[in-house]
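Marked as duplicate of an earlier ticket. Keeping the data here for the record.
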Amino acid sequence: TDASNSLLWRANRRRMDLEQMRDMLLTVTGELDETMFGRPTVITDDANRRRTIYAFVERQNIPAMVQTFDFANADTSTPRRNLTTVPQQALFALNSPFLLARADALAKRITELEPQQRVVRLFVLVYGREPSPSEREECERFLAAGPMEQLAQVLLMSNELMFVD
């Protein structure tokens, strides 16, 4: 009816930017440090769990992780960012030490639960909903062949989590 969404009766689907994605991953895993103010920490520091807005990014040495996700140019005023979808973003989700550490933390967060409750809790933490019967069955089959950390990584890199509908 309104393909261009000019009447603004619904929101267009959009991918989270780097800051939202990083903060969301830390929140889902229960690791987000909500400390306000203070000295910034380098964004690529493994110990940095603060919100991304408090991260230090050196203008002359922009980390690859930041460049991959269309980080705003630190040298100029950037009122609007370009949003691109490139293969490097998917490779980041598959191979990044940051994302792998978040998957491990998420798996550890549910280890104390009974095995039959783990998939449900994982979905509630990541998506805010319970899995459908078919999703639950697929996840249980996946867990029969692989560890919980890999299932957590699959859920953390899914479109359902990375896009806002």
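See parent ticket for discussion. The mean pLDDT is 82.
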